[in-house]
Amino acid sequence: MSTPDLLYTEAEDDLRAAVRSLLTDRCPPAAVLSEAESGRAHDPALWRSLGTEMGTAGLLVPDKLGGQGATAREAAVVMEELGRAVAPVPYLTSAVVAVGAVLGCDTGEAAVVRLLGALAEGRTIGALAVPAATAPGATAPAATVRVDGDGTLSGRITHVAGAAGADVLLVPADGPDGYGLYAVETTEASVSVEPLTSLDLTRPLAAVTLTGAPARRLADADRAQDAVVRALLTGAGLLASEQLGVAEWCLTETVRHTKERHQFGRPVGSFQALKHRMAALYLELVSARATARHAADALATDSPDVPVAVAVAQAYCGQAAVHAAEECVQLHGGIGMTWEHPAHLYLKRAKSAETLLGTPGRHRQALADLVDLPTPTG
Q: Which residues are bridge partners to 180 per DSSP?
């Protein structure tokens, strides 16, 4: 088994610099707050610049299929920067999870290749139609949608991340031929996408209702199961990098604020109690970076350690991000409680991401099962 490479390459550093420059210019905190109040699912102009013009939407897609031919390591760098900016774009749901699901289908099929190319270009936004809290596991989640006799789909899926604003939904469904993965266009009159009130306004949830919706079958039986499992595993693994980015911004901003904020004639950051709290956050951040990079590297190299690496990263990074965001709010004092300050955006992103694709507790249980660690009793 090869040793994981946790360091960033020069190409990854260059990619980070480009993405950070774009987000600094186009996605400052004031713009994120404005977008959160707009009622839109995401910022289409920012997504066009990031996904299409910069080409990040196709990082995980092989170049022969119309993508950039990069790996999960490069996608993880993008996710870190999106976490630092709490950017309102569907990168995780479309460029990671939806692309991962389509890559698991038969890429020799013309319909699959066309869809994959459209997703890689960023001109089509996709979403895997499963509840947002669905965690990766050994088997795909049970389908709540059925295939009707005429080949259309009917059913309802609640709390789907990325469905609002998506052009195509990838829907697991059960039918006469068993489990399958289907593509459904959201423009169809028989498809209803109802936005839900979510904690994180930068990553909205929606309820999807299909009533005899026309669909294209992308994969059947075992192939569909494997595609969904792999997509969820990839999403959970790269979500850890976003959580790392959230935590990093929170610590950096908190250190900056406590250096500038004075009480009793000295910076509040010079008080020993606050130094200890920020030092503890730094140690958590270092550990979070190691686990997130391990997960990204395992996905990039298709290591047999992927399930373990993803479970470790999600068990740790979710709670680390929430802790960093809570400390950011508290150590900012009164201003940290206001709508105008962006701290609440990071706390909401951290809390919502903690339950997205499985809670830390769910991943700890998965890790225990993977390494044959007995569950405590009594």
A: 173, 220
Note the pLDDT of residue 222.
Answer: 87
Residues 159 and 144: their CA atoms lie apart, in Å, by 13
Q: How far apart are CA 110 and CA 218, in angstroms?
A: 10
Measure the CA–CA gap between 38 and 333, rounded to whole angstroms: 28
Give the N- to C-terminal CA distance of the chain in Å, as an integer. Answer: 37
Q: CA-CA distances (angstroms) from residue 115 to 32, 41, 66, 97?
A: 30, 21, 10, 14
- pLDDT band (50, 70, 90) for residue 4: confident
Tokens 């830390």 — which residue?
Answer: 360
CB atoms within 10 A of CB 150: 7
Q: Which of 168, 193, 190 is nearest to 102 (CA)?
A: 168
CB-CB contact of 136 with 129 (8 Å): no
Complete DSSP assignment for 277-298: HHHHHHHHHHHHHHHHHHHHHH
pTM: 0.95
Q: pLDDT, tens digit, for every residue of 200-210?
A: 999 999 999 99
- Residue given tokens 């789909």 in the structure block: 153
Q: What's the rounded Cα separation, in Å, for the pair 330 and 37? A: 24
Cα 277 from Cα 264, distance rounded (Å): 20
Closest CA to 65 of 122, 100, 114, 124: 114
Residue 26 has pLDDT above 60, yes or no: yes
